[in-house]
Design brief:
Structural class: alpha+beta
Protein name: SRPBCC domain-containing protein
Number of helices: 4
Radius of gyration: 15 Å
Shape: globular
Family: Belongs to the AHA1 family.
Domain Activator of Hsp90 ATPase homologue 1/2-like C-terminal: 17-154
InterPro entries: ASHA1/2-like_C, START-like_dom_sf
Helix content: 25-40%
Pfam families: AHSA1
């Protein structure tokens, strides 16, 4: 996993041992998304995805201390199974918006690497101050551990075979 930052952008990349179509599916299907999104120890409820331009992605991420972090974004672009672009909810109160920061654009690309997928999560913040606030609120470590949770999810699916 690599993470780079500029004054208004954060880019995180990770290679997954899963084919691109599967990575796309678990990112765009609420059944799967609810089971891996968020850092270790968090639990998600109320997950919904309207996979269309202008459609919403939302879930409530529950921290181990019981605090709820709503995550909501609007799809700006969808090119299955290659690319998703979200705009974070501009009314979100938390600086990193549970992964979709307010007034930020998040672009996820899914690149084939043989039987693996190179996932790139690029976030462009409205200002350098918003990036700094999100970083201080745990945006980078939150996404790095979330992508670890996604890798663990793929392993658990291979061993348990409970994919609907």
């Amino acid at each position: 996993m690599t993470t780079t930052t500029t004054d208004q952008e954060i880019t995180i990349t990770r290679l997954f041992n899963a084919p691109r179509e599967l990575v796309w599916k678990v990112w765009t299907d609420p059944y799967h998304l609810q089971r891996w999104w968020g850092p270790h120890g968090f639990v998600n409820t109320d997950c919904g995805i309207q996979l269309q331009v202008g459609g919403m992605m939302r879930l409530n991420m529950h921290a181990p201390d019981g605090k709820v972090y709503p995550c909501q974004g609007t799809f700006r672009e969808i090119i299955a199974p290659e690319r998703l672009v979200y705009d974070g909810d501009p009314t979100a109160e938390h600086a990193c918006g549970a992964g979709l920061p307010p007034n930020a654009t998040v672009t996820i690309t899914f690149a084939e690497r043989g039987d693996q997928t190179l996932l790139t999560l690029h976030t462009r913040f409205a200002t350098a101050e918003r990036l700094q606030a999100a970083a201080e609120a745990g945006f980078i470590i939150g996404w790095e551990t979330t992508l670890e949770a996604l890798a663990d999810y793929f392993i658990s699916q291979n061993h348990q075979g409970d994919t609907p």
